[in-house]
Amino acid sequence: MSILKIIEFSFLFLYLLPFMTALCCLFPGFRHICFAGMVYFTSNEISINFVPMPDWRGTARGYAFTGVSLFAVPVLLSTFFMPQYKVKLFPPGTFFYFLYYLVVLLSGMNAIHRHQWGFEVYKMFWMYVTFLTTFNYLNNCKNLNYFICVVCFVLIILFIIGFKQKYLESRFQISSTFPHQNSLALYLEAFGLLSLGVLMNEQMNKLMFVIVLGAFVSSLLLILFTFSRGGFVIFFGGIAIVCALSNLCNGFSLRRLLLMLIGLTFVLCAVGYALPRIILRFTKAPESSKNTRIAFALAAKRMANDYTFGVGANNFSEYSGGDGKYEYARELYPVVYPKYGGIVETIYLLVAAECGWTGLVILLLWFMYYYISSIISVVVLRKKPCSGIAIGVFAGLTCWYWHSSLEWSLKQFNNFAQQMIIYALIGVIAVNRKNIKAAYARMLARQAASLNQAKALPASNPQH
């Protein structure tokens, strides 16, 4: 590591982070700004990197300290130092994450490239910091309106950048601030559907309604701009889930009916505009793309069968290439093998190959824990506050898990950090379900008492 990098990290950890933590303790408003910065940088991978390996073909390419971590650390540390806040070190689902972390650590026994394996281990540590920060911040503030506003502004900013790329830079497939359009599509499936769930179900003032509506329209247009085949189909499937659950759980209303009619008209117009290119993407997809996916899937299966604990996290490309030392991707490289091959295009087989079949089972347990928790929240909170958030989160998870059978994007910094934020949100709703129901019951009781009092006033105070 160069002297310049040592100076950068010394300044960061010895001065900047302590200074930002002190500001968070002294000025609560700055704490909220830091939280907003953490959420925003899940969409923008700006980082300082130890030992960067930009040419490495893997899921992590260095010991990166990202913008997400820069803002997460002061928020988390200030929670410890401020007595009015309670800190939970093990939020719901932590056990399954630690199990997954354990199998990633065990996979290092077979890792040929220990540095690259270390990149993934290091990344997962900072992801847990993001998870802890989000859970404790939201659990202590007891109000999700600010978080929803931040999410909406992030989506609007992504749209502005994507609009510039499409119409000023004339790009065919838009990725906005993301490394690839599929990563952007996965990101929009979570936050875009969350905004739709809020829009259709939550009570809000006119300004908030306009902001949330703008965020959802931004996510919808961005999905079309990506021309991602999987993202297009899955996102519109998610919209159908949100609409169906909103009506099933919370009943029909004029607002939902109008939103669905206006939304349907807008979607038909937008799809009609983009449909020729989308059809072209489906019909003109090269045969080699399908063959590559199949070859890497077979290679991943062979690796998982041969290694109990996998070939090592972030080491897949060594075994899918290897200059002929390995023949796991023999359908793809029948004669000449590259030094490093590609990565299998699904997170499930990637984890199976790098951490073994046991690792895949634990990953699925971790995923399903939050999926089941979100289903419970949808049922318990029907016709209550946070119902729209729960519905949007459930639809987003459904799309994520579906889309992850086609992509490994949830391993990337941006999408992984967003995943931890969504999981923290699910945990906060889960631990506060009883409080939400009780607060809603008290509100209804107050409204009933006020109504009865208003009815009694004319009788007790006759005017004539």
Describe this protein's structure.
This protein is mainly α. The protein contains 16 helices and 2 strands. Strands 1-2 form a two-stranded antiparallel sheet. Helix 6 (145-167) packs across helix 8 (206-226), helix 7 (181-201) runs parallel beside helix 9 (229-250) and helix 7 (181-201) runs parallel beside helix 15. The longest helix has 34 residues, at 347-380. The N and C termini lie far apart (90 Å).
Radius of gyration: 24 Å
Poorly predicted ranges: none
The DSSP helix count reads 16
The share of residues in helices is over 70%
What share of residues are in beta strands?
A: under 5%
Q: What's the pLDDT, averaged over the residues? A: 90
Q: How would you sum up the global shape?
A: globular
Number of strands: 2
Name the structural class.
Answer: mainly alpha
State the major sheet.
Answer: 2 strands, antiparallel
Strand order of the largest sheet: 1-2
Give a concise summary:
With 464 residues, this protein is mainly α.
